[in-house]
Amino acid sequence: MSEQTTGFARTAQILKFMLKYRSAGIFSGLDQDAMLQDVEAEADRQEAPHGRPEEFVDDLEALGPTFIKLGQALSTRPDMVPGEYMAALERMQDRVQPLDVETVRQVIEEELGVGVGKVFTEFDAEPLGSASLGQVHRAVLRDGREVAVKVQRPDALASVRTDLDALRSIASKIDRGTDMGRRLKFGDWVNEFGRTLLAELDYRLEAENLQRFGERLEAYPQLVVPRPVWSLCGKRVLTMDLVRGRKVTDITGLQRTELHLADLAGALLKGYLDQAFVNGEIHADPHPGNLLLTDDGRLAIFDLGMIAHVPPKRRDRLLKLLFAAVDGRGEDVANEGVSISTRLEDFDEERYQREVGQLVSQYAARSGGRTVSEGRLVLDLTRIATACGLRTPPELSLLGKTLLNLESICDALDPDMDAKDIVRDHLENVMRQRLRKSLSPAGLAGELIEVEGLVREAPRKISNLLTLLSENRLQVRLDGLDDSKLMENMQKIANRITVGLIIAALLVASALMMRVDTGTRLFGYPAVAIVMFIIAALLGLFVVGSVLLTDHKARPKEERGLH
């Protein structure tokens, strides 16, 4: 079977899956006929029965590695997925049958260009863990150092690329043909998801993430990140320190009392807040399986393949929004939410302000450990925004999902921890540091350079303005107006009015010519009159056809918030 045929069949398989859960509120708004018109007969045009949340997760896992990762990404989008399905996605397991050790050895030798036996004195055949994209084996270097070797599945990259091509094709049709697509911009989301997933398949990037996170978290000695072994890292192979420990979810109540895990939970939360708001990086997948309580009482963080980078201005807005939320200032939260989002044509600002204010007030009224969830608050803000016609940036929902995962880890370590106080106090500290940095000699020097440039250029610009005014040459130009839809529509109106006047003139002239016998007759009437009447009729039909075929309802107007 050719590559094109395989991709076409895969697209049909994906469409059948999407249509199955259409009535559940997932992928709702799809135009079934339009979506399937170019697909082979494998895609059943009949909508499948409604699937349960657990069945939805099973179907995602059955579709392969791309859709396991897609499920993890959807678990950060309450605007796309109903609540009960999000809960099921959060329990999704990335488990597959492990590769045989010979295949693993072959990948290592192809990637590193050296035999496994020449690099490692020991290489365990049984993997420590196996996932959809790769698996991890314990090994021992020649110097006796224990390491973990992460090896990518041979077919992972080709499979992901085929699935991403199919998803982009489907998303493009949804964006063009459905109201939901125009609101949520599935194409942009799929492209972002694709970039993140392809980056995760390059283990050299994950090695850089490990190195960078380890250096930046040195301020928190309770946290440890395994170091990569750079000489044994490639695109499909990652070698790093082996960390021994147990999952935080396996810790018993007695062990919590003996190990004083409250400090670990606080350090983890503060460290991740620093990563997000100081360094502009959000670890997209900090679930309990990616953290271990080490034998020496520290928290080990690994599996840093999925990292989202947040630009400085967006980072500042997110910081202000979260700080206003934990401080109980609902109006400020709503204003910041509007400023970082895109307002659709049907945006109901009054409803948005009201519902956000109520949500933040309810959150502020609660206190103490488990009753407070900053992550759920942020995800609910995303849900409210979508319901009110406001498209939020993906970083907001990703931040909410990260906080939600961190809260589940902190709850396992210290159920009595008040996350709200820790988040508020640390965000205050981050904002103080940012203020001190802006008032530092380097920061003030940068601002003074800006002021100096303004002062130096001001006299010349004022002189030019006065010259233009005195000579009556001052002009105001609106960029883009000549090329705008307004001008295009005005030209259409003018053209139709002109054609209408011509039709009217031809009809009047033909009526008058009916009384003039020119000698030449057509259908028993004066030929000139009949010809003018036929021309007028054809022009009239052309105008009517143009109106029916080309005029359409304007697409929803989108307006970006102020940045």
In short:
The chain is of the alpha+beta class. The protein has 22 helices and 16 strands. The chain has helices at about 5-20, 30-35, 55-60, 65-75, 85-90, 100-110, 115-120, 155-175, 180-185, 185-200, 205-215, 255-260, 260-275, 310-325, 330-340, 350-365, 375-385, 395-415, 420-440, 440-470, 485-515, 525-550; strands at about 120-125, 130, 135-140, 145-150, 225, 235-240, 245, 280-285, 290-295, 300, 305-310, 340-345, 390, 520, 525, 560.
Explain the overall architecture.
The chain is α+β, with helices and mostly antiparallel strands and 563 residues long. The chain folds into four domains: 3-95 and 165-196, no CATH class; 97-130 and 133-164 and 197-242, Phosphorylase Kinase, domain 1 (2-Layer Sandwich), CATH 3.30.200; 248-456, no CATH class; 485-554. 58% of the residues lie in helices and 10% in strands. It has 22 helices and 16 strands. It has helices at 3-20, 32-36, 53-62, 65-74, 83-90, 101-112, 116-119, 156-177, 179-184, 186-200, 203-216, 253-259, 262-277, 312-326, 330-339, 349-365, 374-387, 394-413, 419-438, 441-470, 485-513, 527-550, and strands at residues 120-123, 129-130, 134-141, 146-152, 223-224, 237-241, 245-247, 281-283, 291-294, 299-301, 307-309, 342-343, 390-391, 521-522, 525-526, 559-560. Strands 1, 2, 3, 4 and 6 form a five-stranded antiparallel beta sheet that branches. Strands 5-10-9-7 form a four-stranded mixed beta sheet. Helix 3 crosses helix 5 and helix 17 runs antiparallel to helix 18. The longest helix is centred in the last third of the chain and has 30 residues, at 441-470. It is extended, with a radius of gyration of 32 Å. The chain starts with a helix and ends with a strand. Mean pLDDT is 79; it is low at 28-50.
